[in-house]
Amino acid sequence: MGKTIIISNRLPVQLQISNGSITAVPSVGGLATGMKSVHSGSDSVWIGWSGLTDEEIPEELVPKIDKALAEHGSSKVNLTKEEVEGFYFGFSNRTIWPLFHYFLEYSEFELDSWTTYKAVNQKFADAILEKAEDDDIIWVHDYQLMLVPQMVREKRPNISIGFFLHIPFPSFEIFRTLPWREEILRGLLGSDLIGFHIYDYERHFLSSVRRLLGLEVSFNEIYLDNRVIKVDSFPMGIDYKKFSDAAKEHSQKPASQQSELQQRLNTHKQSDPEAKFFLSIDRLDYSKGIAKRLYAFEYFLNKYPQYKEKVRLIILAVPSRSNVPQYQLLKREIDELVGRINGEFSTVSWTPIWYFYRSMPFDNLIDLYTSSDIAWLTPLRDGMNLVAKEYIATRTDKTGVLILSEMAGSANEMNEALLINPNNFEQIADALYEAINMPKEEQQARNELLQNRLERYNVEKWANSFMTSLKAQKERDAENISK
Ligand code: GDG
């Protein structure tokens, strides 16, 4: 077996340029962590965009940047500002993202951005081909790079290629509206193994392959020319230990070492031990259902007025894709809703919503997870939703209630949470009521089951089981060829 080549839109490191010196700082995200066991040592390379366009990188710094990235086993694909516009903000985030999250009315079908998407996918494929040997293993990530598997396959028919989609794959009725639906399917079918978070996405994909391409599909295998393509689900986990250790350490910190945020949270808790914190954390994205959550909060306060001055909703909305018009509109809608609800319900001693529009450092994230009685995560669609898993991992005394949307992939593995339909305000208000009044022993019993499962199926396990399956697929192919 040769080396492993990982490809994603963004590299697992961030470049920092100041006064002519370059540093590459590793990202702390779940994907980068999960891939540690796959991306380590000298026998692997990660290819992706550095986050800086060609126009932003001074020519003379290129060798230094390449060197800094190489130290982290990374190699960059160069993209111009125009390419990033068409490929990333255009086709990826204005066509595929809304369509695959069932926001058909937001999907723009523009030939220009499709053309750029193809060209940029070819750039990624070329970057792989430059480094790849026949016995290498290639793992392509996510919706920005769906044409890459076939582009590589054309030049290297025997190489092993896996693809994992981090967002939902929509039902056939939605997917069929895409003008370039066959090209996208054919692009993905260059893989030997195609992975999704849950079985439903897998089922939707197989149905589209059967109905749009007329290919033979048996159970979870697709037959194309002389190849067999396996489709399977691999629910992504989290770095459980990192979150539970951080929470343990956090609980032992003396007050003097606590963050300002934590101290404020403590003060509010101490002033009214009956008060409850509800926590909502997402990127500011229409798929996450933040506006609906605010309407549901208003509904709850009207239905259960005894909780006025008792509950507080903490919203952390992380800025995302803020140059895409729908995201700007959503930001305005959320700002207005928060203002209106706070204006309507606030008293001199109580503000119902604390709203943060920013990204917070990891330690503050832990402050929020560990201080919140209820995590309220109700996306309208979400491939998985790792925040739900992280919240549970930080509950060291096993208390806390998770209210989770049934439209999140994670709902499949988190049956002990209170699962709700994000469009049903009546059900949400009742779930909040149930969560507030849930006996401690019941919270602990539910969370114990959840924690055990999350600890076992952590992100490393996820990455390893995908790789094991991809290698097995390759071996099966080799056996078939030799027969
Ligand atoms: C896509 C899919 C799928 C959030 N705010 C802060 C912060 N975060 C971290 C969380 C978590 C991550 O960001 C968000 O992950 P999610 O899974 O919830 O959502 P997406 O970003 O939409 O991810 C999703 C995922 O890919 C993996 O396949 O689950 O469905 O949409 O890890 O902790 N981290 C810090 N500060 C913040 O303010 N430090």
UniProtKB/TrEMBL annotation:
<keyword id="KW-0808">Transferase</keyword>
<comment type="pathway">
    <text>Glycan biosynthesis; trehalose biosynthesis.</text>
</comment>
<keyword id="KW-0328">Glycosyltransferase</keyword>
<comment type="similarity">
    <text>In the C-terminal section; belongs to the trehalose phosphatase family.</text>
</comment>
<comment type="similarity">
    <text>Belongs to the glycosyltransferase 20 family.</text>
</comment>
<dbReference type="GO" id="GO:0005992">
    <property type="term" value="P:trehalose biosynthetic process"/>
</dbReference>
<feature type="region of interest" description="Disordered">
    <location>
        <begin position="249"/>
        <end position="269"/>
    </location>
</feature>
<feature type="compositionally biased region" description="Polar residues">
    <location>
        <begin position="253"/>
        <end position="265"/>
    </location>
</feature>
<dbReference type="GO" id="GO:0003825">
    <property type="term" value="F:alpha,alpha-trehalose-phosphate synthase (UDP-forming) activity"/>
</dbReference>
<protein>
    <recommendedName>
        <fullName>Alpha,alpha-trehalose-phosphate synthase</fullName>
        <ecNumber>2.4.1.15</ecNumber>
    </recommendedName>
</protein>
<dbReference type="GO" id="GO:0004805">
    <property type="term" value="F:trehalose-phosphatase activity"/>
</dbReference>
<comment type="subunit">
    <text>Homotetramer.</text>
</comment>
<dbReference type="GO" id="GO:0005829">
    <property type="term" value="C:cytosol"/>
</dbReference>
